[in-house]
């Protein structure tokens, strides 16, 4: 697939996320009309891997509404969020302002982040929870991350496990409740096109741009892209919990997150790499 085709698909994704933003702002899923609690989107192992953030420069790539970005600012970081959706960046600015927090948000495609951020470097780059699937080229992405990190800086990815992405979120017509493999685990088969009027949150239908494109990326693809761009893998965690109940049979855990009763499979992973 050509660079022009990738650019066209990412432009469609950008329009789609602009259209999603007002639905997400009003959703119960994000709960932004309640007390802001961005820490609920983090697993405990994330904070262990991230370490002390006070006084550090932290960049959150593909930040959408900036919920996790705000959590970094609450922990004393100089937090910056970057997203390609103008609507998301405007919403994130409003959320941070209402929370009384000093967070900088920048609108840019992640592949253009180095120039958009004036070649600034960071102690920590954070990304994930539904971000990498919107990137067609992980090698190019890893090269951008390497340029964004200071020597010794940390990249932290917390992403939905490729196995989770391979499972359908709901049964097909005439099927039972069993979890079935519906999509590739590994990448290489090109983009998955979706035309969906509803997003992963509650709320009304998305108006306007409903087309989006996703790319599958196995863990080996992520690891190899980082290693080939000079980063060192320090730690990998696989978790069987999610911050919301993707399937009806999931049960609440003591952490407040959700787990399948059986089988016990990885649903989320955390990967720490250093520059």
TrEMBL record:
Protein name listed in UniProt: Methyltransferase type 12
Classification via SUPFAM superfamilies: S-adenosyl-L-methionine-dependent methyltransferases (SSF53335)
- For this protein, what is any one GO molecular function term? methyltransferase activity
UniProt keyword Transferase present? yes
Domain of life assignment:
Bacteria
Q: In this protein, which residues make up the domain named Methyltransferase type? A: 59-155
Alphabetized, the UniProt keywords read: Methyltransferase, Transferase
GO annotation terms (biological process)? methylation
Which organism encodes this protein? Streptomyces curacoi
